[in-house]
Design a protein that fits this description.
Length: 275
């Protein structure tokens, strides 16, 4: 892999990890276009860690508050002090619990689909079809911008639904951010809460996937070459900008405007298979 290829793919990862157009789908297409077969696994791990770092920066205060609440809760449990009131009053503790709950179906589905990664991550036809599906999901989601259920409670059921959707988003071409934010809005959450939960839920999902990836990479052997390093740095910088941009678009009710792009790229991919 050449340095310029790493940089281009890093830009693709940074933009598409947060913009609802599927980062995995674009990485697969980019790697196929450049005919890249070496360092693919470790490169994917590295650039995903770059965009994960962007999430940690943007949501640092929220993550910090959740960790503080969890440590206080565990301290009371270990010290055998009353802790039930925390579950009812501490919003940060509730959010942490919902992220853990939502991560369970994501992990289970991800482990099942991992058995088919040799098919999922090599088919541009699949990517094209899933991009068209993503575009449709985004377009339908516009109906739910202002259809927030009065007094809706963000509960375990909604966390599980979003976690299930995130699990299937491992399929290249299905946007993780697009599908999970849309699922949250359809479930009755306001778009601000849906977006925040989507990106916080991505943290354990990305970490878990990369830990498994590192294990596989160590078994096959890998080299951290300059293209991977540059790609990771670029994915972080571009991802930081893309995440902030998407949050603004979600808050302004412009989330669905990415649908035509997904449809166009998906159709172009499928048409290229016929020519």
């Amino acid at each position: 892999m050449e340095i310029y290829q790493g940089i281009i793919l890093g830009i693709l990862q940074g933009l598409t990890e947060f913009l609802p157009v599927s980062s995995s789908g674009h990485l697969v297409l980019g790697q196929i276009y450049f005919n890249i077969t070496e360092f693919v696994l470790i490169f994917d791990i590295s650039v995903h860690m770059g965009t994960l770092a962007a999430v940690l920066v943007v949501y640092f205060s929220d993550i910090k508050l959740m960790f503080e609440s969890v440590f206080v809760f565990l301290g009371k449990v270990i010290g055998r002090k009353p802790f039930a009131h925390l579950l009812n009053t501490d919003e940060n503790l509730k959010l942490a619990a919902l992220i853990i709950i939502g991560s369970v179906p994501t992990a289970l589905i991800g482990l099942v689909l991992k058995q088919f990664e040799h098919v999922l991550f090599t088919s541009d036809t699949l990517v094209g079809c899933m991009l068209i599906l993503t575009g449709t999901i985004l377009w339908v989601s516009r109906r739910y911008y202002h259809n927030e259920a009065a007094g809706v409670k963000f509960d375990t059921k909604r966390a599980i639904i979003i976690g299930i959707v995130q699990g299937f988003a491992v399929v290249p071409g299905i946007s993780r951010s697009g599908s999970t934010i849309a699922a949250g809005m359809v479930a009755g959450l306001d778009r601000h809460t849906a977006a925040k939960f989507s990106f916080l839920l991505s943290v354990p999902a990305i970490l878990g996937a990369q830990v498994l990836g590192v294990k596989d990479a160590m078994e096959t052997g890998f080299i951290m070459n300059p293209a991977i390093i540059y790609g990771t740095i670029v994915s972080f910088a571009v991802g930081l900008v893309a995440l902030k941009l998407l949050l603004k678009l979600v808050h302004r009710g412009k989330f669905h405007l990415f649908a035509p792009y997904c449809w166009l790229v998906g159709m172009l991919v499928l048409l290229s298979k016929l020519i």
